[in-house]
Write a structure and sequence with these properties.
Helix content is 28%, strand content 37%. With 395 residues, it is α+β, with helices and mostly antiparallel strands. It folds into 2 domains: 290 residues, no CATH class; 94 residues, no CATH class.
């Protein structure tokens, strides 16, 4: 039997009927009674429990995970309303899954470690190829959760993750697991067996002006930059008072002008999206930021965004020595979606132009991505990213 993949989609207004139609489309491509794995990406209006039950009845999956997203990515289009389903049957791969809810009651690092332990407990083969997880977008810091997963699974295993949210406003998040829809939760997938994994992560942001220095930070909170409240970096650039930044401009600022944190590699930046500016003038980021790091405001444009996804696809082709993967999962930042607008599909087309038009492509827009900073060669540097496109190719 080897490996077979079916992808279905529906945007019919009734969520139950949409799940039914997407499941039938995927099942038709598989031509099988049972399914080993189903991955669901759906927009928030389709987070419907009865829809999941209907899909379960049609595809009969052994394992099911997924996340809500503002946009579902396919090889030929992007859909901003509906349900997308990827179903897999395989003799070559083994899948184990796990979930963890009530994240607000558990320290983030401990929660990541616990999810990884549950994945290992469900894994019946010694072979581990990669780990994929979806994390709650309402949790304020994803760095420590990722660190907990790495601590249990080890630095050598490729890990990819995505933060699922409803929209750029980041007001709701849900994840799919088996026959349930979970809030305040994370779900994970561990793949083992005869699989070849390739990962590439790219961003296209460039620095504005000279670097400043973060002289006081705590976890994911930047307290001061150049001995001034951190918000002054934005105030000085936009000539605006912090009250205006907080009340009116934060959404556009965090998507169009994120922070670029300098790394040990020259001209390499870790992008951080501001998610709040508290009354003390600090900047709350989505991931950890180190005291003493140089920081820039960052900017990009459509051409650079499209080029970066082409470059990521070229990275995958190099890793695979030109061989086609069985499928490609795409996790692309909402920040890039804001820049690209309707032209975003042009970047997605580049994936199949580089890797083959017959390769199934399935993905989602995210509020944060988890991957090695660079390519699979730097897997030990896996961390929370913002503003990036991440490709996970399984062959």
């Amino acid at each position: 039997m080897a490996t077979h993949i079916g992808i279905g989609f529906s945007s019919t207004s009734d969520p139950v009927e949409a799940f039914k139609a997407a499941a039938i489309e995927a099942k038709t491509q598989l031509n099988a009674v049972h399914t080993d794995l189903v991955i669901i990406f759906a927009t928030s209006a389709y987070a419907n429990t009865q829809g999941i039950v209907t899909l379960q009845r049609i595809l009969q999956p052994k394992r099911l995970i997924g996340s809500i997203t503002p946009g579902i990515i396919f090889g030929d289009r992007v859909e901003t309303r509906g349900v997308g389903v990827m179903a897999i049957i395989s003799d070559d791969w083994h899948f184990s899954t796990a979930s963890l809810d009530q994240l607000n009651l558990i320290p983030a690092r401990e929660a990541g470690y616990s999810l990884a332990q549950s994945l290992l407990a469900d894994h019946k083969t010694p072979q581990r190829s990669t780990c994929l997880y979806f994390y709650d977008g309402l949790r304020k810091n994803g760095t420590q959760f990722c660190a907990g997963i790495r601590e249990e699974l080890g630095n050598a295993l490729p890990i990819v993750g995505a933060i699922g949210v409803d929209s750029t406003k980041i007001t709701a998040t849900h994840h799919f697991y088996q026959d349930r829809i979970l809030a305040d939760a994370a779900v994970g997938l561990l793949i083992g067996g005869a699989s070849v994994v390739s990962i590439a992560a790219r961003h296209s942001w460039q620095p504005l002006g000279k670097p400043r220095i973060i002289d006081n930070s705590s976890g994911n909170v930047i307290l001061s930059i150049d001995k001034q409240p951190a918000v002054r970096l934005y105030e000085n650039y936009f000539h605006a008072a912090d009250a205006i930044l907080r009340a009116e401009q934060l959404e556009d600022i965090r998507l169009l002008y994120p922070l670029g944190i300098g790394t040990s590699t020259p001209r390499e930046y870790l992008i951080r999206m501001p998610i709040d500016i508290p009354d003390d003038g600090s900047i709350l980021c989505q991931g950890d930021v180190s005291t003493g790091s140089p920081v820039h405001l960052m900017i990009t444009d459509k051409d650079a965004c499209r080029q970066s996804i082409h470059d990521a696809a070229m990275d995958i082709r190099t890793q695979l020595f030109g061989k086609q993967p069985k499928f490609i999962l795409v996790f692309e930042s909402l920040m890039r979606r804001k820049i690209l607008g309707r032209s975003g599909i042009q970047g997605i087309h580049a994936i199949q132009e580089v890797l083959g038009h017959s390769v199934p492509v399935f993905g989602m827009y995210t509020a944060g991505e988890v991957a090695p900073l660079g390519t699979l060669k730097t897997v030990s540097r896996t961390q929370l990213l913002n503003g990036s496109v991440v490709l996970l190719a399984i062959g």
